[in-house]
Amino acid sequence: MTTTAASAATPAAPPHGLSRAQLHELYYYMRLTRSLEERLVNLYRQTKVIGGLFRSLGQEADSVGSAYALDRTRGDFLSPLIRNLGSMLVQGAQPLEILRQYMAKAESPTRGRELNIHYGDLDRGFIGQISHLGDMVPVMAGVALSFKMRKQPRVGLVYVGDGAMSTGAFHEGINFAAVQRLPMVIVCENNGYSFSTPMRKQTAVAQLVDKAAAYGIPGVRADGNDVLAVYGATKPAVELARNGGGCTLIELVTYRRKGHAEHDNQSYVPAGEIEAWEAKDPIDRCIRDFTAAGWATAGELADIDARIASLLDEAVGACENEPMPEAMSALDGVLADPARTELEWYRRIDG
Ligand SMILES: Cc1ncc(C[n+]2csc(CCOP(=O)(O)OP(=O)(O)O)c2C)c(N)n1
């Protein structure tokens, strides 16, 4: 993107048919993702988060820009992973329910049965994730197959990490999607690491997108830290899928600036690497690009920041004082009838 002082006076139209308001929305969701995760870090350090905390620091543009390319009004679906909080927010997830979920509160979507962002909502078009890497690819292939069989113009988008691409489930899922020409987009977030395994030990291909050719489908590679490049890569793939053109593999090149989760001290990361990627921060870049092009003023972006801060103040304040689930409800909604019978037995002996 080239910008000059003169272009700020008469801004060029934003790319990819996006409006100024839509660019502000892209910024909103990236900032919301980061700020919500920062609140979660504070709560984690106060031991108020139950279980692990998985950050997407530095990857906000890839989640937000790709999810934004789906059409929620047409019933498109996505399948997030632990680092795709941003995509869920775009799809309509609310900060309060994310906070409740991380703190295992009684009112959380899974009522304390599952943690972090492991939940789904079919009405809002995001699917609860299976932890086993790669498994969501065949699951989304099934969803996309149902769209195709019912002749619905809907698209399914599934996220995988560089590590997940080495699994058998990924291979079976992408192959099936390719052969069946399913209305599907597979977004690979190449963030350099799978837990402590760097890319060079993960795969022998030079670029993950090279794998697309082996399945006979189009492959696209984009800068995952540039929200407009991400949107620009994903939108045509979504429309191709919707129009019967089948599945595309998109590689978004980014970097995992935090450890696998908060407990991971990243001792395996070479010196200077994190700092080099800090300089390519997707939110800083968005602010720079949007203001230089005249698509947003610093004041407009600061207003968005302030709106998010007060939204999160309210959500954290409300959630912190909410109760945990009743201990005796632990088996409700988890297992089938025999377990409930057992629970009744415990209730009886409990008096
Ligand atoms: C089949 C399988 N093997 C191992 C794990 C344990 N595990 C959970 S996340 C993770 C790393 C995932 O790396 P990647 O797919 O690159 O995604 P990233 O964490 O980098 O976003 C591992 C090894 C798992 N969940 N499933």
Summarize the entry for a quick read.
This protein is α/β, with parallel strands linked by helices. It has 14 helices and seven strands. It has two domains: 5-320, Rossmann fold; 327-351, no CATH class.
Give a topology summary.
Blueprint: H1 5-9, H2 20-45, H3 60-67, E1 77-79, H4 85-90, H5 95-102, H6 136-149, E2 156-161, H7 168-179, E3 184-190, E4 193-194, E5 197-198, H8 199-202, H9 211-215, E6 219-223, H10 227-242, E7 248-253, H11 273-278, H12 282-293, H13 298-320, H14 337-349
Parallel strand pairs: 1-2, 2-3, 3-7, 6-7
Antiparallel strand pairs: 4-5
Helix pairs in contact: 2-3, 2-12, 2-13, 3-10, 5-13, 6-7
Bound molecules: thiamine diphosphate.
Thiamine diphosphate (TPP) binds next to strand 4.
Structure, described:
- 45% of the residues lie in helices and 9% in strands.
- The protein is of the alpha/beta class and 351 residues long.
- The protein has 2 domains: 5-320, 3-Layer(aba) Sandwich (Rossmann fold), CATH 3.40.50.970; 327-351, no CATH class.
- Helix 3 (60-67) runs parallel beside helix 10 and helix 5 (95-102) packs across helix 13 (298-320).
- The longest helix is centred in the N-terminal third of the chain and has 26 residues, at 20-45.
- The protein is globular.
- The chain binds thiamine diphosphate.
- Residues 83, 131-133, 161-164, 167, 189, 191, 193-195, 256, 260 line the site of thiamine diphosphate.
